[in-house]
Amino acid sequence: MTATRTGDRADGRAGDPGLFGPGSVTWQAHGDPMMWVAGIRALYLQALHPRAVRGVTQNSDFRRDAWGRLMRTASFVGTTTYGTTEAAERAGARVRKIHRMLGATDPDTGERYGLDEPALLRWVHCAEIDSYLHVLRRSGFPLTDAHADRYLAEHRHSARLVGLDPDAVPANRAELAAYFARVRPELAAGDEAHEVDDFLRRPPTHPLLVPARELLWRRVARLAYDCLPPYAHEIYGRPAPAPATVTRRLRATGTLLRGIPARLRWQLPPKHILRAMARLGPAARPAPYKLGP
């Protein structure tokens, strides 16, 4: 999303904190490196909604452009979290336009439906936000229950950006749990879900990079799968280790990644955090100790 960078420069609002601002839970949490594990968990969870996953498999070349798709998602999250208000709104408008243009077909009934159906957008939103919150907390990021509720309430902003009514998405942990309980009967692991599962476990790569895939990617993907909710493991038909084992692995991975200096991690493109700090000053640096009660 090259427009994001241009928007940060062009809107002229050097002090614009964007949609969330440095005092938000979102601003502090999204700078954590475990967001990458959380993003893969979200893909696993999202794939269990048959109508939603068809929208991906029937409209995306994710097998040939996996890295590009991942970076576009990361860029959207980074823009809406750390970009100016104008840049975030522009990113949301682009996503809404794409969703309006695309549709999918139910192979069993022949029904054609749009990807901007509120029920589908809500599922993708909830699976994503739940994954971010779950992985960060379980890996040791210091978020209290009150912080978690604030985080969910804040993400009414991101729900609006993708075309949802903010009042129609869960705004706290109780509402999120109730939502997943309601939608659970609609979930299934069809051919498309297993295609996503196979891809996440063995993404195509250059022969020279196969060792790196086996050593790094598969471990991250397995960790993301293992920290799914038990009902997801049941639907996929693949068990996971004991919860205590998964929690230890998440905490160990979080400790390792958080040991990399933040300034070094934030040098990776597209550098949203560094640009936000340049716009707002050093006080904009994400740091979990800033969060109040």
TrEMBL record:
Stretches with biased composition (Basic and acidic residues): 1-14
Listed GO MF terms: oxidoreductase activity
Domain of life according to the entry: Bacteria
InterPro entries: MPAB/Lcp_cat_dom
Alphabetized Pfam families for the sequence: MPAB_Lcp_cat (PF09995)
Region (Disordered) location: 1-24
Residue span(s) of domain ER-bound oxygenase mpaB/mpaB'/Rubber oxygenase catalytic: 27-258
Protein name stated in the entry: ER-bound oxygenase mpaB/mpaB'/Rubber oxygenase catalytic domain-containing protein
Species of provenance: Streptomyces pactum
